[in-house]
Amino acid sequence: MKIEAEWMRGGTSKCWVFESGQFGEAETSPDALLPRLFGSPDHRQIDGVGGATSTTSKAMILSRPVGDDVDVEFTFAQVGIEDAAVDWGSNCGNCSAVVGLYAIEKGWVVPTGDVTRIVTRNTNTGQIIIQRVSTPSGALPIVPEAQMPGVPFPGFRVGLGFQDPAGKTTGKLLPTGSASDRITAGGTRWAVSMVDAGAPVVILRAEDLGLDPESYDSWLAGVELQLETLEHIRRQAAVRMGLAATTSEAARAVPKVAIVASPAQSDPDSDVSVMMLSMGKPHPALAITGSIALTLAARTPGTVLNDITGGTLQPILRLRTPAGVIETWNEERDGSLLVGVDRTARTLATTVIHLPEALGSAVDASLANATN
Question: Where are the beta strands (DSSP E) in the chain?
């Protein structure tokens, strides 16, 4: 069997983009199909199209809803690497940036004006994301020129505005009802904040992990030595946030972990230093859905992050990440709160993926319905 797909970069992630309607009726579920397409389980993903990292083993499934105020619906799949599993429990903010661009390139949405507004809905979370794609003179630029931290080459500018993002996964911005909690792991009681906005995130202070706020470049080595403890904290947070019944049942993708501290005195360009963990490893930049949670955490009195940023609401939050400073913004519009960030996106390839014969006759129709 052959499956058409686009290979696209969104922000600091890469994903394979499928249209839901191209999958026919068959017997294999997407939970079996996608790992085989990507070459999992195998840490190299050598016999598939996966990139062998958490930021490059991702898929987006797109559809055009009928009779709705939404232009495009999309479902995100985080495909396991060492394990043949798919996590559907959250969205990817970086990969979300490909949705508006794809819609314009495929003619689903006609560009209007210098900025084209595309209303999208993520089905994993029910989140509405207003995408603003730069279309000067009513068209995509012939050559993309927008730059962003963490990507050496330019792409098309895409602004992502998460509409009223609080509680989309758990029902509450603060799932435990408290801005600050204590979790015991490794024989230590850790002060944490558990926040659900964009994605569920558990936030810790860098100092509590023995990390020096004045030496951000040394964090990576220090974090990697404590991954087991951080995973224990994350799994307990999953239970406390209502994401799993037991720690052993906690999904790998949610909640994410964010380690934060005041910026170094020599760093006047940021408001907070952040290192985020995704799929058990330090993120090379920042999970954008996680940045939405951090933005609302900064606005919420009593959280670990608000203690750093202070009580004054600012329209821009500058986050120091391993890839550079990422700015998030928030604004009130038509009675809704938009929390967002600007990304870039680009189509890398239009291709046909060849599916092994053993699965070729057994592609599950549920993949076509994954956006329902």
Answer: 2-10, 13-19, 58-63, 72-79, 86-87, 115-122, 127-134, 146-148, 151-163, 181-185, 188-197, 199-205, 256-261, 272-278, 281-282, 316-321, 324-333, 336-354
Q: Could you tell me the CA-to-CA distances from 144 to 101, 110, 249, 277, 322 in Å, in that order?
A: 12, 18, 43, 30, 24
CA 362 to chain centre: 30
Q: What is the pLDDT of residues 96-114, one digit of tens each?
A: 999 999 999 999 999 999 9
Compute the distance between CA of residue 119 and CA of residue 124 in angstroms, rounded to an integer: 16
Tell me, yes or no, if the pTM score tops 0.85: yes
Q: For residue 184, what are its two tokens?
A: 């015991």
Tell whether omega for the bond before 141 is within 30 degrees of 0, i.e. cis: no
φ, ψ (nearest 5 deg) of residue 316: -125, 135
pLDDT tens profile 103-157: 999 999 999 999 999 999 999 999 999 999 999 999 999 999 999 999 999 999 9
Secondary structure (DSSP) of 199-247: EEEEEEETGGGT--TT-GGGHHHHHHTTHHHHHHHHHHHHHHTTS-SSG
